[in-house]
Amino acid sequence: MTDKAMNDLFEEQWNEWIETLSFPTIENQKNIKDDISDILMKIFTMNGKECQKTIDSLNKEVSIIDLTTIPTPDDSDYQIQYSLVTLGLNVAAHSLGFTHGRSVEKIKCYTLDIMKKAVKYLNEIKEKLCQDYDKDFILHICKLVEDEFKIFNGGKKTIKLNKSYQIKVTIQTLTYAIPFFEKLHSQYIKKNDPKNILIDNYKSQVRNIFMGTYTQCKNETAANMLGDTLSNAILSSLKRDLTQTIADSFSLHNKFPSKLSLYAKVMEDLFEKKDFGMYIRFINDTNTAMESWIEMYVLDYCMETEERGKNRLEKQANEILEAKVEALTKCVNKMSKTTKNISFQVWLQNFFKCAQEIVPFSETVFNIFYMKEVEVTNFIEFEKKLIENLEKVKKNLASIFRTGNLEALNSLDEKPHISIAKNILGCTKRCPLCYVICIKASDHPGEHSAPYHYPLGVAGVHDEKTKELVLETCNVLSVGELNFRNYDTHHKWHKYKDYRSVVEYYKSWNIVPVSSLQASLYWKWVFSQFSKEFAKYHVSSCSKIPLQWKIIMEEDVKNSIKIMFKDTS
């Protein structure tokens, strides 16, 4: 029989066999536009008819993000608030038709920045998440737009944006995201469809077995094919176990026994680098920043050299691999005692039951080798070759982690630092006034709290008259009679000491009101060191830094870190 004839026969029998299998179904369609409508109705308290009308008005395909695709604000979408000093000039400009045009241009430029941040978020999903589309992605984008509008309206700009324009920007951003979500869902279906997985991963192997059988393939061929299949299963199992082993080992070495100890290390690193940009990233998104630091510490931990010049990652990978191959070899030896008067299919069934406890398989993998064309007559030679192949598999897979570098660590499907971060970081809620993160565990009972709060100027809080960033902490101001206002207070004045009555989230924070408690030496030094940078970043005036802050010694700053996190020792 020619190669073409054998291949045609294989295709015929493969298709017949595929039709005998049943596969679980995956939801093929998700109405993303309906999800958007439901979420918008809940967020903006719109009725169904009003929501659909608003969506239809912007329901054009958006393939690029630039000033031409940004929604143009109507007069009802924003307000211009003039100061007494500039009122005359603005009135004159308005009479000449300048003010509206400039305002619209500013709003569209700011909106473009918001939508670019949304695009960045979508790209992060594409790079980091191998999963199906989820409604939470829509909620995240809505929250992103809402937060950016809060920032815009909370500043000292004369332009204040109304909710009507927030709705337009939200819908336009989601309109751009719809094709992305649809593609994400389509890729998920394709990747996870059992029939496609079977065809893509195993059809070529089955074809090789089929062709080898018709050419009276020897025991070596069957052993090689089974070895290849075992290799895929061993690698998947190795990666999964290695992730957990690294996470457990990292924790066992008490690198960071608590959230506070991690904070102390990060504070030391920030101090040593003296990079304002790194401080801003830490303050603005502490959770992501801490994850990045943990990733760096995990990499350093994995790269530490242990016995015989091997780093920890390579050593742990080899130990896991050695154990799995040794256990599989024992399975083969166990089968050799029961090979008398049995078929190869029975041998495979018994072997897979034993191997399943070492490297989990799917039932589909078992079925591939049950096809009647695969047969072995000399089990002694077959088992000997299979054991040799397992040793080759061990060497080949060990080479992946031999360098023990970042590329090898990133090859793991589940990243160790993500698992470690979940255990260490705990609660990630931020103080509504200074943005310091809660120090308690995740899902902790009671109120949020932090041992030390930032000077409020770190979060951009400034005096409305002088525009200078505020030096005091929340703790100090919550004692006196001073007032504040922001988006959460609807820009109405509110006493710091009554902060709990603003909204429910403020009530969940316990900011200890102590008149003598000031910012730690550490944050005094940070504020003094980068006072100009903070002022420029928050579009405010430089604060009048006290002389005592300016003369703080670096050694005292280091000691301040130990005091702030003294309970970690």
From TrEMBL:
The keyword Coiled coil applies. Keywords: Coiled coil. This is VLIG-type G domain-containing protein. It comes from the Eukaryota. Residues 303-330 form a coiled coil. It comes from Meganyctiphanes norvegica (Northern krill). The keyword Coiled coil applies.
